[in-house]
Amino acid sequence: MLLEDRDPVRQRGQQANGEVSGTPRLGGTGDPPLRGTSAPDGSRMEAVAEGWELGPAPGDRDVTPGGTPQQAGRHEEALMAELSELVQKVVKSSSWWERHGVDISILACSFLLLPAGFLCLRSTQAIPLLAGVFTLGVVHHTLTVKGSHLASHNALTESKSWGKAWAIFFIELCSAFTAEQATYNHVKIHHGYTNVIGLGDSSTWKLPFLNRYIYMFIAPLAVPIITPLVALDLLRNVEWKAALRTLCCMFLGLYCHYWLLLHVSGFQSPWTALLCMLLTRSLLAHPYIHVNIFQHIGLPMFAADRKPKRIHLMSLGVLNLPRNTLLDWSFGHSLISCHVEHHLFPSLSDNMCLKIKPIVSQYLKQKKLPYNEDTYTSRLRLFLQKYEELMVHAPPITELVGIQ
């Protein structure tokens, strides 16, 4: 059983009555996170093609039960090794199309939809105009969220060189963020220290000075403006060559969007073109923000020196949402219905996370480990009801007394 020092029965990391029990980021699991942690050595850090098993944090010690700490640690390592072996068998038996091709095709289709979206905006009729806004909005989020997320994990290709190139393209050119900082904060910090207080606890997403309705329903509209501003601030932490490259890519991406609205879509006023840019870039900003907080905040949180091993950390601190056609396409399975699988095996593509989902869920349940799932509406209701507790106050640290 998992006990928390303030409420001994709630912090079990499992579903209870439609909501995930437990008490306690704006940047995720998805798109480049807006986190202020600087990457060491700036641009010299490679885009990480991380392994499936991250080493312990400095000072980390196993606190799960099962005899001595060493015995408990060996037991959890054996569980992760066994699950990894099952998953590797599926990966090795999968074709290139399954490992990379499906997701690359989705990104390629999004590029092919761009001309149709810009041309629809030439119309003065409501339906084609709305279709153009919707098309460009979905394409933008597919490239910036799904593309950036896969590129940050080097899940689009097995080549590190091509992986770095795709990270620059999707994160800097399409998303107007800095690749080094996005990769470091998301892969190294968020994934390495998921739900660890002060590191991967998703606190970047919290804006405690906003009330619940402004945060949940109005603030997301500002994401397209906030993202490049945060990126500019983070450029102080990277080498000047990387900063110059990022500035050029950010300017080129934003200017190309603006230029196409003027010269292809036929906007006469710069202000209407800028308004259309804001509208399309914030079309799915609400679910983007919601998904990033729903899947971690409200689940058990841990101290850096007292956290469970990887398999327990990810099963306790990560939640899956149900499949959704629009969000599956735009954000990817690894950010929606396969987030637990993604945190356990982060280098796998969205399609592969979906393929291993039955194996992971069955294994965790067989071993009586948490496998958190909840609906979008249930999580939205929970956050509106407990906004102060989850998003304003500091989350309590979960005390590991035992895990059954």
From TrEMBL:
Annotated InterPro entries: FA_desaturase_dom, Fatty_acid_desaturase
Residue ranges crossing the lipid bilayer per the database entry: 213-235, 242-264
Keyword set includes Lipid metabolism: yes
Single Gene Ontology BP annotation: fatty acid biosynthetic process
Entry keyword set: Fatty acid biosynthesis, Fatty acid metabolism, Lipid biosynthesis, Lipid metabolism, Membrane, Transmembrane, Transmembrane helix
Location of the region described as Disordered in the Swiss-Prot/TrEMBL record: 1-74
Coiled-coil region: none
Any GO CC annotation of this UniProt entry: membrane
Molecular function GO terms recorded: oxidoreductase activity, acting on paired donors, with oxidation of a pair of donors resulting in the reduction of molecular oxygen to two molecules of water
Domain of life: Eukaryota
Biased composition (Basic and acidic residues): 1-10
All copies of domain Fatty acid desaturase, residue ranges: 130-373
UniProt key word Transmembrane: yes
Official protein name in the record: FADS6 desaturase
Native source organism of the sequence: Chionis minor (Black-faced sheathbill)
